[in-house]
Every structure is written in C-alpha cells, then in structure tokens.
Amino acid sequence: MAAAAAAAGGGPQPPQPELPAPGLALDKAATAAHLKAALSRPDNRAGAEELQALLERVLSAERPLAAAADSEEAAAAGGGGGPGAAEEEALEWCKCLLAGGGGYDEFCAAVRAYDPAALCGLVWTANFVAYRCRTCGISPCMSLCAECFHQGDHTGHDFNMFRSQAGGACDCGDSNVMRESGFCKRHQIKSSSNIPCVPKDLLMMSEFVLPRFIFCLIQYLREGYNEPAADVPSEKDLNKVLQLLEPQISFLEDLTKMGGAMRSVLTQVLTNQQNYKDLTSGLGENSCAKKSHEKYLIALKSSGLTYPEDKLVYGIQEPSAGTSTLAVQGFAGATGTLGQLDSSDEEDQDGSQGLGKRKRVKLSSSTKDQSIMDVLKHKSFLEELLFWTIKYEFPQKMVTFLLNMLPDQEYKVAFTKTFVQHYAFIMKTLKKSHESDTMSNRIVHISVQLFSNEELARQVTEECQLLDIMVTVLLYMMESCLIKSELQDEENSLHVVVNCGEALLKNNTYWPLVSDFINILSHQSVAKRFLEDHGLLVTWMNFVSFFQGMNLNKRELNEHVEFESQTYYAAFAAELEACAQPMWGLLSHCKVRETQEYTKNVVRYCIEALQDWFDAINFVDEPAPNQVTFHLPLHRYYAMFLSKAVKCQELDLDSVLPDQEMLMKLMIHPLQIQASLAEIHSNMWVRNGLQIKGQAMTYVQSHFCNSMIDPDIYLLQVCASRLDPDYFISSVFERFKVVDLLTMASQHQNTVLDAEHERSMLEGALTFLVILLSLRLHLGMSDDEILRAEMVAQLCMNDRTHSSLLDLIPENPNPKSGIIPGSYSFESVLSAVADFKAPVFEPGGSMQQGMYTPKAEVWDQEFDPVMVILRTVYRRDVQSAMDRYTAFLKQSGKFPGNPWPPYKKRTPLHPSYKGLMRLLHCKTLHIVLFTLLYKILMDHQNLSEHVLCMVLYLIELGLENSADEESDEEASVCGPERCHDSWFPGSNLVSNMRHFINYVRVRVPETAPEVKRDSSASTSSDSLSSLHSSRRPKVLQRENSGTAQVFSLVAERRKKFQEIINRSNSEANQVVRPKTSSKWSAPGSALQLTTAILEIKESILSLLIKLHHKLSGKQNSYYPPWLDDLEILIQPEIPKYSHGDGITAVERILLKAALQSRMNKRIIEEICRKVTPPVPPKKITAAEKKTLDKEERRQKARERQQKLLAEFASRQKSFMETAMDVDSPENDIPMEIATAEPQVSEAVYDCVICGQSGPSSEDRPTGLVVLLQASSVLGQCRDNVEPKKLPISEEEQIYPWDTCAAVHDVRLSLLQRYFKDSSCLLAVSIGWEGGVYVQTCGHTLHIDCHKSYMESLRNDQVLQGFSVDKGEFTCPLCRQFANSVLPCYPGNNVENNLWQRPSNKSIQDLIKEVEELQGRPGAFPVSISSETNLSKEMESVMKDIKNTTQKKYRDYSKTPGSPDNDFLFMYSVARTNLELELIHRGGNLCSGGASTAGKRSCLNQLFLVLALHMRLYSIDSEYNPWSKLTQLVEEMNSQLGNEEQPEVPILYHDVTSLLLIQILMMPQPLRKDHFTCIVKVLFTLLYTQALAALSIKCNEEDRSAWKQTGALKKNTCDAEKSYEVLLSFVISELSKGKLYHEEGTQECAMVSPIAWSPESMEKYLQDFCLPFLRITSLLQHHLFGEDLPSCQEEEEFSVLSSCLGLLPTFYQTEHPFISASCLDWPVPAFDIISQWCSEINSFTERHAEQGKALLIQESRWKLPHLLQLPENYNTIFQYYHRKTCSVCTKVPKDPAVCLVCGTFVCLKGLCCKQQSYCECVLHSQNCGAGTGIFLLINASVIIIIRGHRFCLWGSVYLDAHGEEDRDLRRGKPLYICKERYKVLEQQWISHTFDHINKRWGPHYNGL
Predict the structure, then answer these.
(1) Distances (CA, A) of 410 to 133, 206, 520, 1205
(2) How far does Cα 915 stand from its chain's mean position?
C-alpha cells in the first residue's frame, strides 16, 4: 500500500512512462485495483489524474479507427486487425476499470443487487409481441411485455395482444400510465424502501470512466459524419460508422440493464454540464479535440442550425439552467427581424428540385418564432448524443439505449426536455430522409414513451413551450408544400393549400409529429393551456386552413381524364390525422359548463379564419360550377365546437353564431358537397375516373363520416334553422340543378342538366332534404341513442360479425373520447338490439363466423331507412336493408307485398334547433311538393317511386312537426282575398294541404301539348320551368298575362339574398353581381318558351286521395277510416299503418291530416263523396287503357317466368341427382356408371362433353374422370386410440416410430436383409406412405373428347389455380378437380352375372383351375400385342399413376428398375385404395351397405387396369406362392444349399398382399368361385400365422399346457377345425427350432402378462384375422357388386366370413362362434403346417430374434388423426413464436407447425431452402407425399399445400364471438373450435381438399 501511495504521491508524471502500450499483455486487473485504491483515498486528485492519463491512452487507441473509417483503404481491409483489436482492447480496459480489479460478471451481479426496479421498462423494437389492457390503462398507449402481462391478473379485462409497429416499452409499474391493480407480481412492490444503499466504492470507478467513454463515442460520431454532397446522405457511410460503433453502444446498453444504481450514475454523467464543457469545448491544446469540435460546428451549420454565439440577433443572455436551453423570444418578438424563412428556406430549395414543376408558395413567417426553428445549443452529453442520433437518422441501437434509461426519473425529465429542444431539427431531418417510414417509427417509439405521461407533458409544456414548438414545427413542415388554391376564383385567389401529390403528404411523413400533438392534447392540463392561448389558436387555425379546399376536383365535361390521380388517399388521411384528430382531442376536454370560454375562443378564431378564407378565394354568393372539394376542416371545426357548446356546455347557440350573410356563405360549400355526391352517384362525373367515386365513398365511410359528412350536415342544419326557409329550399333545388324540372308543364328544358340525370338528381335533392330534416345526431340524441341508431343501421344492412361492427360504428377518432369500442355501453347496446347466431358448418361449405342479426322488434320499431342511406358506402346496401326488411315482414306476417321504407318517429329536437322545422312550413317547399304530386299523378316522365316516397316522407314530417293548429282555422277564411297572386295562403302545411289551386301559368316549349290545345284541357306529360298560379277567372288571367308575376325558385332566392346583402353593405357587392349571376342565366335556348295556362283544380289532399286510387289500381279505393271507427281519431298510433307500401303511407298521412284539423277532416270526406257517386261503366281513357294493358302484360310475363323457372328447377334437380355433391361425403346420390340393368348386354356410358351415350369400345374407349393423388394418410395410423397432442413445451416431443408407415418400413428392410429381394417384394405391400389414391366424381367421357377439351384449356390463358400442362382439369360437368382419365374396360354385364353363378366343383378342382389360369400369359380378351386405342390409354394411365408419387415411394428393390418393383407398386395401389376406403367407412364394415365412396368408386376399373399390367410380368416359375399354399413339397433342404439368400418363408408373408397378387394375376373378369377358392386357401395361412403369433405372445408354462391339451384332441373328427389342436401342433412344430429359446429379459415386452382364457384367445385370433376379412369383403363388393351386410361390432367376424363363403351354409349359430370353423384345408392341415413351420425353423437357427419379430404382425391400426390441439391459442403462440428452428437455429419470421406430425418449420424462410424448395413445401413432400397441413403461428390460420398448389384453409381457433382473427390483428383470446377441426381432419382423411377449397394458387416452391 505504501508503495502505491508513494507512486501516487510522486505526481501524475512517473507512472506514465511505465505504462506499456495497450497492445501488450498488461495485467489490467492489477492496474484497475491499484487505481481504485488510489481513488478511494480522501485526497484522490493524483489517482484521478493517473486514471485520466490511462484513459487518454487507452481510449485514444480508438481514434485512428474513425479516420480509417473514412479512408477507403480501411474499408477495403475490412476494418483490418489493428483498429478492431484496439477497439476490443479499449472495451476490455473499460470493463476492468469499472469492476475495479474484480471480475466484470461479479461486478454486474453486485450492481444488480441494488436495483430498486419498481418499473419494468423493457424496450422492444418493431414486430415484438406485446399486450394492451384497456381496463388497466390510463393512457391509450399503455403496453405490457408478455411476461408482465402473464404475471398480472387480467381475467375478464378488455385486453388484446398486438404486434408492435414502431417498437415500445413496457409500462408495468408506472402508475402514471396504468392502474396499479394491473401491475405484475414483480412490479407490485414499491421496492425502493427495502433496497440497501449503494456502497460508495462500488460505482466509484464508473463515475470516472464513463464520461471519457461517452465523450469518446461522441468524438467518433463527429468524425464519422461527413456532410453529404447534394443533400443526399450516403446511407452506406452512415451505416459503416454505425457498424463500427456497434460494440460500444451495446456496452452502454448492457450497462443500462444493470438496474437503477447504474442508471443513476449514467444519468449524472449524461446530464452533467461541467463535464461536457471541459471535455468538448475544443479550447484545450489538444489538436484532436479541436478538429473534432470544428466538425461538430460544421454539422450544426449544415443542418441549418446556428450555435447561439454566432448569431447576434439572438444575443440573449444565457437562460438560467432551470429553464430550457432553447432561446425563446416572446411569441411576436421575432417578427420584424426575420421576414422570409432564412436557413430552412435554402434547404428546401435544394430538396425540391424534383417538384420544381409546380410553383410552390412561401409565406412570410411573421407569426412564428424563428429561434424555434434554427437555434440549438448543446450543454451536456445527452443533448449532443441526441443530436447525433437524429443526424444518423435514429439508429435502432442508439434509440434502444436512450429508451433503456427511461426508468430513471431524473433522466426522463432531462431527456424529454432535450427531445423537445431538438424537435424542429427532428422535423427537418425527417423531411429529408429517404427512409422516412423507418425513421417515423423510431421517432414515435421515443416520443410515445415521453408524451403519454401527463405529468411529464405538463412540465415540459410549462418549462419548454412544448405547444408553441409543436404547432410552429407543424406549420413549417406544411409550408414546404403549399400551392395556390384553384377553388372559386382561379386567377385572383390568395388562398394556399397543401399539395396532396407531394411526398410529404403522399407518404404520411407528417405522421409522427401529428401523432405526438394528438398525444399531448389528450392530457387535460395541456389541452387547457392550448385552448386558453389565443396566439396558439390563431396559428393553429392558420395551419388548418392549409387543408381547407385541398385536392380540388374539376368535373371533366369532354373526355375522360388520361391519368387518374390517387392523391385523394393522401388528402383524406391528412384531414383525418392532422385536422380531425386534434379536434376530437380538444373536444374531449370541452364537456362541462366551466369550459364555455374555450369553445368561445375556438369558435371566434374559426369564424375569423373562415372569413379570411372567403376573402382569399374571392367568394360572393355563387360557388364556381363543376368544382368540388371534400375538405372543409374549418367548417367542421366550427360545426363540432357549436355542437359541443349546445350539447354539453349549455351555451346559447345564437351567442356564437355569425350574422346572416356569413351563414349564407357557410352553407354553400357543404351543400355543394351534398349536391356533388348526388351527381357522382348519377354518373355525371364518370369522365373523372373511378377515383371520384372513391372520394364519395370515403367521405361517408365509417372511419371518416363523423369527421366529415356528419359535421357538414349538422352545419347545414344550423344554417337552415337560422336562415329564411324559402331561401334555403330554393338554394337546395338550385344546387341540385333540378329547378327546371319543377314545373306543372309536361315538357321543359333543363339548361344545366341532361335529361338522363334528372331523375336521380331529383331523388338526390329530396333524399338530402329528408336526411337534413330527420337526422338528429347532433340535434338532441344522447351518446347511447346515437350508438344504438348506428348499430341498428349497420345490422339492418347485413348480419355482422362483432369485429366488423366495431369497425363500422363510427367512434371519435380520439381514444380518450369516452366511447371506446368494446366498452360496456357497446356490449349492452349490442345485446339489446341483436341476437347472436353461432357459426354453423355445412360439411364442405364455406366456414361461417359468429354473426349478429337484428332482433324482430328492431325491424318492427327501429329500422330507420334515413340512417341507412346516410351510412351506406355502396348503394346496394340500401337495397339489401330493404330486402331484409321485406323478408322480415313476410315472415312475421305483418305485410305480404313490397313494403316502402317505414316512417320512423324522431327523438325530439333540442330547443336551440327548433327553427329547422320552418323548412317544412314554407311556401316554396309546399309548391314543390304540390308540383311533384301533380306530376306523379299525371305520369310525367323522369319521376320514380322513390321520388313519391320522399315527397310523402316530407309531408309526413311536416304533419308531425306542425305548430299549434286552431289559430289557423279562422285565418284561412279570408285566404283567397288576401293572397291572390301567390300559391298558398299561409305557410302552415296543415292548412295549405286543403288549399285548392285552380290555374297555373307555366312557361313551356312551343312544341308542348299544352300550347296546341285549348288551355283548359289539363294534359299529362312532364318537364320544368317557372311556376305561377292565380285564383282569378280564366279570362282575366289571359289579359293579365303580361303583368302577372311569375314565381321562380331562382328569382326568390336571389331576392332574399339581395335583401340580406343590401342590409349589410349595399354598394360593395353591386359591382361583382353581374359577373356571378351571368354564369347561371339560361343560355340562348334553341326552343322558344311560351306561356300557357293550366287548369288544375286540386289541393294536396285531393292529389293524395287520387294517388291512393292510382296506386291501388281501383277507383274510389279510399274511404276515410274514421267514418266507421271514431276510435281511430282518439288513439292514432295504429300498428296496421306502421308497415306497408305507398297505399299505407297515403292512408297514414290523410289520417294525420284529419287529426290535426277539423277542416281537413271535413274536406277529405267531401272529396271522397265527390269522387264516389256510383259511376256507370265508363269509357276507359287512353292513359288508363295503357295502364291496364301494362298490368295485363306484366301478369303474363310473370306467368311465363314462373313456368321457365319451374322447368329450370326440375332440370337442375335431375342434374344434381345424376351428378354428385362434392361437398358432402355423406350424400347418397346414385350414380350412373355400372348400374345398368342386367338385360342390357353392355355397360353404357354418357360422355359429359359430347353428350352421346354408348359402350366403351377398343377404338373409342370411354374413361372415368379421376383425380390421382399421393397420400400418406394410411402411414399416419397409430396403434393407440389416444391421438397425439401438439407439443407445447420443450419436454413434449412426438416420435414417429409407432406409425403404421414406420412399422411397415422396418418390416420390409428386415426382410430384405435376410431374404431374396424378389421374394421380399412379394411378401409385403408398400404405399403406406406416398401411396396413390384414385378417386372419381363418377362422370365419364370419351378419351378423344377429353383430349380436345384439354387442348382448349391449354389455349385458354385465364385459368388459374390448376396447371393444364400437368394434365389437371376440372370435370366439365360438376367442375370437380381431376388430373387423369381411367379407361373403362369394354365388357358386358351379362357375362358378369354368369360368372357369379355358384359352381359345385370341389375346392381341389378350383385350386387347379386357378393355377392354370395364372400360368396362362396374357389371357385377356384384348390381346396386348395389338396396339389398340384402349391399350394405349391403359398404358398412359398407368404412367400417370406412377408419376403421381415420388420415386422414393415406389422404388424399394435393391436392384434399381427391376420388374419386381413395378409389380409391388401395382398391387400396392390396389391395397392403398382398399385400405383408404375402409378408413372412410370408419375402420370397419359394420355399417354395411355401399357408402358413397362405393357408389362413386372406380376400384373396379382400376383393378382391370392393374390386372392387365400385372399379367405382363410373369412371376418366377419356381416361386409362385400359390403352389406353396396348396401343395406339399418334398425335399426342402435342397434349396438351402445355394449361397443365395432364401425365399421369404410363407408365414412371414402379408396375407392381404398375397390375396391381391393372386387375384390380379388371374384373367379378368374373375369368376366368383375362383375368388372364393383363393380366399379360403389364404385364410388357412392367415389362421396359422395367428396361431404362431399367439404362441409367441404367451409364456413358457402356457405353451406347454396348450401343447398337452391340444395333443389329446388331435385324433378327433374335426381336429383340423379346432384351434386348440392346431395351436398345440404349431407350438410343437416351432419348438423344433430356436424360436422359443433364449428368452432374455428384453422379451418381456412381447409376452403379455394376462392369463389367457379360451375367450380371450378366440378374440385374439378373430382380431388378427379381421383386417384381412374386411379388405377381402370390400374387394368382393367391388368386383362382384354384392352389397355388404350391416352388423354389430361383435358379430363382424362371423358376418363377413359367411359373406365371403368361408362359413359352411349349414353352420348353426347357437353355441358361441369359433373362428376355426371357417377353415377349409386344401391339403391335410398338419402336413402343410409342418412344412410352413420348418421354413421358419431353418431361419431361426441363425436369427431367433428377428424370426420372432417378423412373426408378430401388428395388424390392429386405429384410424388416423391430426394432432390434438390445446384449448387456448395463446399456449401455442407463446411457445412457438419465439422458438428457434432446428435447421437454421434462428427464430423464423413466419413460423409454422405441421398438424400431422408436429414438425416446426420456417414458412418462406430462405434460411432452410434446399434445392430451391422452401421448407414447408419440402416437408409436405416428406411427411404427406405432397399434402401438408400447416398452422401458421403468427396468423392463426391453416394453410394447405397440395402438390404444386396451396390454399388458405381458414382458422380452427375462434374468439369469444365466433370469429377468426387472421394475422392476429385484433389479438383477442382465441379458443379451439372442435367442429372446424373435425371438418379439417375429415377433409384430410377423405382427400377432398381439392374439391372443397376453391381458392388455390401456385406456390412456386416458395412456402
């Protein structure tokens, strides 16, 4: 110690020279320990200096590297050994020094012990899976890592799992962001109390070392950054520097993970201003430091930033450390000095060369504070680190490091202030960035952590002018892309708008900044500051006005636009995100009376901004024609704040409304949008392309409607309630361009509209009025009522899933607005209005999801067509809602016909808006209604039922909302005298309804019929012009025609407007007037208009009654109901009137009119009396005749149609009977193949292509449409009942060696080891894996027709989904997928019947015949040698069958290409198809009958093809198993003398394979008695095998006991049919060999421990034989067409054996059935058995083990199953989504798991690609021979791979509402749906994926 002290005392110099160069081996630990000791003394100056010197040396070793990074040589050397090593060394030194001589790992552990971790703070990057719980969250951005989520208790909460878009951090433990109840177990304890204090010396070294380390990092960043030329940062260079810095930053990141103690040291280091000053000022003598500082200043300058000292304008004294480092002047202080934007200005010029074509507009920045934009002064490491982080475009590592520090509270505040200080700089960098998407995500990753915390946001707002900065930065950002607005006055407009085509808007580059702004506005304290600050509000309105009128559409009148711009996406997104969302944020804080002031402020500045806007665009009173913009954010701000003011703050509406003139201007543009919507839907804008329709749809779409159309309609409602109603109504009709149509005349001229558009525009205008007058969204409905109305409207259009409802119900875009989707009110309203329909399954049909459908009472009382029209994006949805309503009425018996939309009672109006109802009581509207009723009655053209419907709706609305009546009664008496020149006496609809109008003067074209005739004849036709009426006699009218006033809608509107304008400022506008009006004066029209006078003599009431007659088609159909039943007038709400068609509506209206006034009641009765005197059968007028004819014609047409439909239906039915129904494997539909009647000599086939019928012949063969597919389903059978579970932990694994395929594989290779190859290949079947399965739809076609069909498919390029080149096609009749044609063998059925007659030959004779027939080569009716078409086809189909499966599944021989191989393959195809059919029948034949598979089976044809080919191969003559089975051979041993391997002993043969070989070797068609003979012979072998296996199963004592008992009975008469005798004989024979010897311990497995009783032995023998009997019976059923009997499971053996003819007919069934009684030995039993056993004995001499294994054949396979899945999807997800792939050891991006075998694979992963096959495709070939079923872990869906195609099958996991969640977008908990999984398994087993799933696509081996 003394020595060390002396050394230290010797001053800083001496130790330096002794320090060896860092490259040499130096005992770092000793040095570190020595320094630590020196530093822990009280006087540690010397130690400190020594350490500094060491660090200088060590860390400067890194510096050359930075220089090297710049130079190319270093790059070429790949960063060479030198610098890399030095870097490593430096890090090692740092670690050693931190640990102070101890081990670094121990040091880390020691520091962690002092971690007071109350917060989790885990930082993650994009794509990480996290959770969000709305129940626990205070901030909507709250998120939890999976670990904290699962550790906490969130049962029953509203949570979801999500994939992080931008990255985030875990908020567990942070009570500012979430409720404490949701904290996990680890973070619940506020642990600061019980953590011991950190010992001073532990972190002492860190405090000395880290500042140098961080400074070193910063120097690095400075030197690595080269200001790129031409403003394009070279990504490469930046990334290179970052790669070199990777280890340093990682080191810092590791430090942050040591916990709170280390974080607080880091915080000190990062925020200490003194340290920073000392190290970085660049004033010292160190030249390196100087250079570094210069680079830093250059970087600042090039960023358009200044270092405060450089700019004297900002010569403000240093702000004290307490305030922000931002030099901020008073808000207006910087105005005079700056004028144009300076530095950022030049920068923009550089960046904008690409967009130079369009003139950008610059604003002078008088309102903004320049210093915000371009002054930065760094005072600590943290600030400069952030600066470089931004410069380098937010490298992920740096971001993670900065965020990892956030749990430290002090750091959090410092960092947030620093972030705000750099905000403007962030915006500039973001605008320039090429990777703006990545950068945006990184920015938000940081800012969301800082601004979600209300406390922090408030603090920064107060101390750092956060709001000023944000608003200014946003304003600057948008200013870079402004263009001149072309709205209204193109030349002189002063208004500027954003250009939606710029990258800034197109790529949503503004998104991070806007999202931050929305985030901070969600905090009440911050929002209140914003709403109180007038300067800010002015600036913000300024910002919003940039979006006012953007993306202007001009209607193309001549030709179609060449280029459809898609800028509207950008425009809608910008308005929603940049304007509407902040608006909703502000509105959420204006909920109570106390906040009235805020609303007044916003409204005031909004109106000012609007006034400026009207001035800027030179707007007077007429909108420019043929233009529309959907973007009026200022109008919408104004409307929404008005609505809030009245609804929540009890403000008086009139106190915040402007004057009349302003209201008139305000209504123009929103009204223009409504008219344009109608024009767009009338196809008047088609030349503008599809995008204009897109805009119209987006405007009303659920995510936009409550920020766009709703505020617009509300604003129009407000204007309508305060303006003169006549003016408003005439404006509407003028905007909709239908004024000219509203004339009594039958013809008219429309100067502004084509005739074809008139009808839909009129419908549009009336519909708009109905919506305007009946919508109550902002006029008095409560939030819950609104929610209910929205939900009902959506449900009425269509049944909806829960998630689509959530999506379709417009919610305030701001998350804090209260109505959260999925909130309590949502669920309760949903259960009140809708019923849940659980998902149902049609087998093979499309899988449905859980749906909600409206309750009956909702249809009855709440269906609101108006709301539906308002909310439909597609017009067809309105129709859909009406259709559903009609269906409901029919079903419930309320109304049989075609109903009209029902009239719905409205919620009462809020008192402030009562004025709205004056629209219904103004003369102008009444004139329009009267005119339209008249025109409809007179059948004028261009009117529709829809028009009438809306007219009646408006009348009814007027009656419902009329003023008090009685006063009107007397007034009406003096009516006629008082108002002779106007249409109606007053303005009340109730009294005007009864007012008769006698004459109307109209302007009509000279060609109109009115002119030609006497003017008194009222004509019926149709058109539009000015209207006028008078009650004077006709003659007077004539004389007066010159002077009488003509009523014109347009003139009225002008007049009103003039009055109002004159009141406010007369002379100013007179000048402009002519210009605006001239646009609308009618052009000099070709047709001369003349005046005619019509005699009308009707009132609205009389028109209604006549309409009733017209609609019902009967004269005098209306009879006032109250004459019969006075009750009606007392209680008018009669259900019979609530649903119905037009007639019902008219009746309802007349009833309401009568109720409202006694005069009306009297007049209705009078009219009815006038019309009803009994009329003599009258002459039918032409018009009526026309209607009647029409009616008759319609009736006839209807009958014709019914007849056609009936005929069509019956045709379809017969087609469905002959065809089959692919979808359901269970349908029993007979099929026409070989079911021809016996008397027909040959089978007749229909060709589905040419339609001809006929037999299949040699030169023109017919074939069956078949699908060949390789299948490994059989191989998946296991011998245990319990299906395997999908592994969900490391312990659970699935091993495939107990599958059927594996067992058969082992058996074959064992045989091939010891026996002759050719004989092995006849002893077993293959095809358990990769076997070929053949299925057909049952339709036949001529093979030549098929070829031409394929040719046409090949030329037809549109086909997708299957590949014609691979021979794939769809059946021309039923469209089932197929890929080959199986030729039908010409044969006649009669012969077939002859063969089946039982013959009485003895078994010995039959055996001989069989042997002879087998020996006769090619004994086929068709000689193979002659090449006929048929034989060619047979060969080609055989080739297809071979090519269906892979080579490895058909080549098992040791000698490649040997014929034995083909032989084995062919009979195995037969075996595969039989076994699969057995599985489709459930694994046994108890159900009997012919299953559909049987009806549609092609086994018969397949057998003939196989047999034909098998007979080409002669079997080894010396070795035909048949002789071994039926003859005794003498000298056995002679063969064994040869060296070659022996034949396979007959007892090791698979009996079913032998059966197929024997049958396929016979000439076809086969005779029934030969078949039975073969079966009998084989059964004896099978039974012997069973006995041998049984003898091995039991132990030594049992064996000897049985040997004795059997031997005693050996001489009884039926010894050969007694299993005891036979068993004892087998045991004694086999005992001669070594089979039973050497029973070691390992044998115990085979020996079953149970004691054998005769019953259990009998059961064992039967079970052993059953599989053979089942296959044989199936085969017999297919070959000879015999039905299978059904039976109980326990009697299956006896039933099948008697069906096969094994049981003698005289067999009695009284005593228990004994299997041995089926035996029929062809030669003496004991002889043949001993011959068979001796083969085994000679083999077991050498190989006893294998000999025993081969005898026991496991024959009882259970049905195949897919893996069992867990109940909850989360268990699968959590295990697999982070699991590493066993091949490439990475975590796959798209993990998938095979549901057949549980293998984990990388979907699409290039990492596991082999020979251009990706892993899933490869696995599907290995596991399923081309069929793979994979569960995609990250998407919860199942994908099917079939050969070269794939399809998305759907999901077997559904949420609580019965819905799939593809891609886990909603992240709700998912549960297994057992029915769906069963359907999937069923399709797998039955091989019907190809038929049932329709959407297939090629995968190009890329999955």
Answers:
(1) 28, 18, 20, 81
(2) 46
